[in-house]
Protein 1
Amino acid sequence: MPTNRNVARAFRRAETPQEKLVKRKRAKAGSLNEEVRAEFKARYRNDPAAFVTECFRWGDGEGPSPYQIEIMQALQEHRRVCVRGPHGLGKSSLCSWIVLWFALTRDGEDWKVPTTASAWRQLTKFLWPEIRKWSNRIDWARVGRGPLAEGRELLMLSLKLGTGEAFALASNQPALIEGAHADNILYIFDESKTIPSETWDAAEGAMSTGDAWWLSVSTPGGPAGRFYDIQARKPGFGDWWVRHVKVEEAVAAGRISADWVEARRTQWTEASPVFQNRVLGNFSEGSEDSVIPLAWVEAANERWYAWQDEKPVLTFFGVGVDVARYGADSTILALRFENVISELRRFRKQDTMQTTGFVVGVLSAQKRGIAVVDVIGMGAGVVDRLRELGYTVDPFNSSTRTDIKDKSGELGFLNRRSLAWWAMREALDPQTGLELALPPDDELIGDLTAPQWRTTSNGSIRIEEKEEVKKRIGRSPDAGDAVVMVFCPQEKPAQKKRAGAWGVN
């Protein structure tokens, strides 16, 4: 009686000579790949700059900039590197190169790469798409393996190899950062200016043992927080290598256009915090007499991005209308849905009836809402026509007196313009929890951070008049005025309740 083993042997087909040849070639190729892998790791394990310059397929004139090479060499030597600089210097590219270098040179060992950022969107929209992009430009023959497998090794927000993983973590969850232990660990803190101190402290524990590296890069914000402390070389942070990439270096490297720099200088003025942060890479939150800090506006921009991603259904409130007074100015419409300015619409050289038509178009489409219109000058005709058509209008006269007080109940306001701008300040204050969302419009950001304030001798808050701001920054802050008007509390009790329905009182 034949056994199962004998039956199986009887029916087993012998390998053909061709199959044997293929098998020998695969075995040889596998052996060669292992040799290449070993040589790759030995060559690049502690040299990220060499990995980037030699293991990516670069076109003519392409390659890392001199300051990026310097930063990678500093990471090799110091293990802790903190870099600040302007928008566009190549921070996300740099971080993506370092993630790929670390993962591929440690594969086969116990390794992890936690990546985090001040805003989740920085990871989902910039860093991890950049990692996927650069993985496609690696010379895999030099690495000794095939390209990363999409969906199995390279996912949307993680890179999983045989013995380790790179992954995204929210910066407000320090416990997850603290729990990321491995023999080889690399922390990437991208756009790290407002990452909480608790998260930095959580990562610190992993730096005491094993093969540990840390790269922090960001455009700067105000002079506060852990990122600032490291850049300022405060006591206790002497083991960090610190670098400020100047805008001139980024322009010379072809990363930033000199024309863009000059355009932003004209748009924002060199003294503004937004120009200092985003173009010069300096820490600045504006003068003490600025009405609205830049950091508050940037936080509102992040909430707008989140609103765009989620698209919740919101109730339309109304539209702020700043009517152009002069030839170079634009008429601005700011559309408000609850606590969100959904968009800004700009119109040039429109007469009263055309402007009215645009406002009517918005209100009729929503079938409700109020138009808050700057009534001074050309706006008076718009107000009159909207009333004739039966629409609800709040004629905004910046010089009108008001009895409304600030949140403390102690300070009054010189006029309605002062009330409107201070109400926006209080609504954007992170301590209030109102969570306004504003579009990341360059002109709007500049407008909101431009006005200054002071208190008068009779205990009233006075905001710079529009003409004063225009003289100082070289243009009219029309977008900012349209936004603050549509959030301004109204004097009439019935209207005040409506204006404050979403928390702005």
Protein 2
Amino acid sequence: MAELFGWRKGAFTGATGSHRGAVERARGGTLFLDEIDKLSLQAQAGLLHLLEERRYRPLGDSDDEREADLRFIAGTNTDLAAAVREGRFREDLYYRIHVLPVHLPALDERADEIPAWAEYMVKRCAAERGAEASIAPDAQRDLAAARWPGNLRQLDNVVRRAFAFAAATAMEGAPVTVCPQHVREAMAFESSSPAPSEDVLALLRRAAAACCAALESAGSQQGFDLADAFRGLVIEAEIQRTGSVEEAFRRLGKPALLRNRNHGKTLRREIEKVMDLCRALGRPVDPALSALAGDAETSRVKSSDPRRR
């Protein structure tokens, strides 16, 4: 509260000079009280008096109270109503500040903003180094398709990391371009474990929306047919997770394909759909996909060789 109201010289031990509090410094403007839920109950009482009476007295000042001429905005990332029920937040203060509540959605709910934020962050990184930089549209789309439980702070960390990777490989004095590969390298440092509250259906819908937008941008009108590529992506993910093609097909509920030795043909067909999607988006085919398709062809030839029966 001393920081909020200020103090006079000698008001307490160590107060070697007077200090203008935040209320005085914000006179005629706006004071943002961040994480208001962290205030003690005693501090909440002092704040309530300030909001109700619009008057305050600096610590150690015996003169009349001063008038507070400012606008207040309070911020919190907790449920204040629940804090009131638990006795951690004053009910009267809650209803005093609950005048015009504004809910700021999480970054995951504002994915359309991510490309603009990423571009701003890259240019800020470049300005700090006195360089020029940009971020490729494909890299922006990759960031928009990712999940950001840490909101803008997490995005800023990833963009800074990706910029560092891009700058390390750029020619001396040349503009820095953050590409999808730099974004993938930066994202690899993030936790790969999904959050317990992760909504898989919501993620799939976001991925579908991003895919449709990317195909439209690339001028492709095969979105419905290319949607079949998801099956191949699921197979690829399970192969990477288990480290075995055969085990992947078992876990995906297709043991009959293994018994009939048709899994190689199925794998190649589904991976080729993923490769078609890459081409439609104008993206280079990942060498790992090509290798997986080649392994599938080898497996298919072996399974069809009469000498192996």
Protein 3
Amino acid sequence: DMLSGTERERLVQGWNPTSVPYPYGKSIAGLLEEQVLKRPEAVAVSLGSRHLTYRQLHEQSNRVAHALHARGIGEEEIVAVMAERSPELVVAVLGVLKAGAAYTPVDPDYPAERLRYLLRHSQAKLLLMQHKFWDRAAVSGAETQAETVNIEELLAAELPDGTLPLVYRPERLMYVLYTSGSTGNPKGAMITSHSFVNLLHWYTREFAFTEKERILQIASASFDLAQKNLYAALVTGGRLVLFEPGLYDYEHMAETIEREGITVINCTPSAFYPLVECAADSGYRQLGSLRAVFLGGEPVHMTRLGPWLRSGVCRADIVNTYGPTECTDIASYYRLRSEDWTGGDELPIGQPIDNVRLYVVDSELKLVPEGVEGELCIGGAGVGRGYYHAPELTKERFVHSTDLPEETVYRTGDSVKRRPDGNIVFIGRVDHQVKVRGFRIEIEEIERKLLDSPRVHEAVVTAGRDAAGDTMLCAYAVAAPGATAEQVRGELEAKLPAYMV
């Protein structure tokens, strides 16, 4: 053992002083109801000219909960929700939680093959869909047992709007999010309710959220970073502002931030850089209301934000967040006040959030000293339950180490090192997973889909850099006679989300 007792104590306890009381016994629905009682007629959710007050949101989500309960949907059962950014999406996921069930967000833009796989693998009892995607029900509903229900029709039905008197169990399943999988198919990460409440409590406490908060939601609900932002404003009395669905129009996004007085935005760095560049023409006036910018999913290149930070009008903290889907979105963070930026490029991923503990270990899961590269393991309240219907995969990633004071830690596969000040620096991956524009991608999944094609004999996928220095996917294939790149691409587009092609 290379570590002295003092070193070990610092690595285990000294850099993980994160024990903070949190409302373990309260549900998201219960926290929302507290705000409904305080400000029933205040706007809770808005999308352009559409608004839902706290009372309307509460009553409509209660109707969804009653409808699900009447269909026998309850604890530990999965409800798939297919909706774009909209009030219907927020009502639907809240209704699922109020029924005691768990939800799986399904992106309407996914190819039919992926939709069928997610519904089949999740064993969803019900698919809640927006009316505009009804034509996808036939595409995705075949081969599954899920009953398909139109959200708008359900809300128009005569249903009770009071709260269901259900017993709340903090350890129950809250959601299952599917991420790219090395086996060739997506894998579902299971997150429990109390783990998410811990994240939400840290998020709103550490950054002092109040009823004046205006949070802009721009991410799809199928991504982990979207989850906390769906609820953070609602449990603190603020407003959730939904950005119009579809491709990002950054001029419109900048106008929305200024018009709505947005205070908080959370996205990938590569989604934020164009917004900063777009706002440059106004002297960054359009970003003047922002007080916190949460970036995650890929390294932050601060020089891309430099002109805004030096402009004199930036008053936002830049928060670099890190965490896998399997550990409730955020495990660590590094907060930089704009006036403290001295010109460095990349930010560390920082130190753990409340009730989460971080360890840097070697290949045998033994602690390594500060400054030595190793794999990051995560312990504490944020660690999820494992992978849905994948015990072998769960056993591989959710492990026990006799060298760590945790029943279970999650092996992230990320290579890091700890600086003398305790902050952790991200180095890269120990496997073939990559991040492209913040999307987590297992290269093996794309390679397997390529090799499924009769047009491809051999294939290798790599992550390279384009002219701007951004990560991009490159596929190299040995093709069958007569096959073209366009044909192979077309086959991939029918099987994989656009960000993986």
Protein 4
Amino acid sequence: MTTVRASSHRSPASMVAVALGVACSLACSLVGARSVEAQTLSNAQLRATFDARGLRSLTDRSDARVFALRTDDFAITIGAQRIEGRALAAPTVRTRADLIAYHYRADAFDIDVTYELRADWHFISKQLRVTPRTAQAMHIGEITVFRTTLDETPTDVFMPSSPRPRLGTAEYGGAMRFRDQHSLLMIAQNPFLHMTVDGSVATLRYTADMSWEPAYGPFVSDRGLIAPVALSGRRLPAHERPEWRSSGDSTPGLDEREIETFTAMVRAFLLYEPKDPLNVFVGWCVNDYQIDVGTPAGRAEYRRIFDQASASGAQYVLYAPSNSALSRREESVDDWSWEHVLWLGLGQQIRRNEWNPRTSPIPPSISEMVDYARGKQVKLLAYVYPVLPFSQSDRWIVPARSDTKRKMASLGNRALQDWLIEELVAFHDRTGIAGYSFDHTFLTFESSSRYAQWYGWRRVMETLRLRIPDIVIDGRQAYH
């Protein structure tokens, strides 16, 4: 997420992206129900045992340290109904070589709780899947991924916390330490977590506060992850030293091995990781927004930028000049009055539904610059703000943060997500760009929960990556 080396999914929010294959293939890929006695999952690094309702122990094969659990429960609130796993009838259990799934029936819902251990993991994944047995929409409230009772009480607990809680973010999980220089690291794949440790009982939960329609398929929770760690005894400070200060908070935070384990958990779910750095020439670093490529002189000037970008070894250019043939700065509706440089200069027309990437002609002032860049072996990234008040539908329009008389679009709205995905794919395919630089991605509108908006934006990015595997996704100032 930097200016020069822009990697498609390097931001925390992007790295937290989840593969959804288990949710789609669970029913057809599991073998028949087996005995619930002494079920195990194991690989070269970890061994996990299970009883009739869930995880019972984790053994780190590197040093044979066993972490015993008395119980591991779950809970979820759907509408006004809170469903507690321990209150449900005994589940049926199905297994596969790398996972164990517990199937519960809860009134109008089927709930599957799946534990997974892949060959290269040093952690166990736990995930809830809710399938309604009626055609009615659900409202998903609080989700307790882990309610774990340990056999021993931690001597110390550290929970990394959000530096900006006003955004609705909270903890990032927690590390439970024990006397013998070991810990259990418990996290889930979103930044809205709340963790509590009361004696030997650890609870990890988050609140979705989002609607879910039957047409979306089963609701699948974010993965919870739990990993054993052999501590190094070297802890980093809980907070980074403030810029331009010689000293900072010396409160100890995560152990170096806990950081390594947390990092490995994140990397295990990356949808994309380039083998080499992606070198992006950022046009506004040469004030390209002051260049008017709607004129011959402006296009000549920008061709010199392409020349220099190519000469410096850049593969991509974040292309955001002014274009008086297509847009006007004074007609911009974003907070920074930069809408006129978006979507290669077509941003205002796209917002007003005056230009369609599938059918409308590409303006000569754009095709000329795309062709010239291609001749220099440079591809363009279009600059895009996802929450502008696109006029294609009023379903996603909400009051803006700074001025309620102004309007924006909320990423908590599924229709906006769907429209953005299709529009971004079509624009990419039609214009020949390499991808997008995203900014102005505000997730704090009052129309829906912070989590619902964050979830929606993650869904857009994940789907773009799956639809266009080699797309370049670059993040600017307010990407998340």
